[in-house]
Amino acid sequence: MSIIIAMCTYALTMSISPGPVNIITMTSGLNHGIYRTVPFVAGATIGFTSLLFCIGLGASELIVLFPTFMLAIGYIGATFMLYMAYKIAFSKGTIALSEENKPGFYQGFLLNILNPKAWIASISGVAAFTTTGDLSSLFLFCALYFFICFIGVGSWAVVGQQAKILVQTESRLRIFNMLMGAGLATVAIYLLLT
Q: Coiled-coil annotation: which residues (predicted)?
């Protein structure tokens, strides 16, 4: 039972901690509401869980066999984050809910597949909580992570929607979007430089 608690704690900590996916989720929650952000959260959750499962099946060997693979993932992921940062920062500050620049399922899925933080979390988690050749521990870890990741990432949409009270004018919303876009761009640039 203690291994399950450890898996859940790890999954919650990694899912709820600030990162590119959670910045976009919060911004989408504020701009589009919780329900319109659910497809992005679902995509991010399925993308991460798929990555976790593939790493557990041995995809982490790619890093050993091809050391530049992780470097390429980092560059591709950072470039995609810069694109998303641009979309967020320069979205119109309209209060009415619209489909403009609303991140969807595919953006969430791709962002977690290309997110170096997701790769590191997957590799660390698989190493800590599964044993080689034991698929039952991998299935358990992935199942727990799926539900916890959905809740952890989804909570950022709730925070975003609640923050709408603070940005009730279009100019404030535009400033918020620019700050969130700049924050995401900073993360992406940091990943490119490290």
A: none
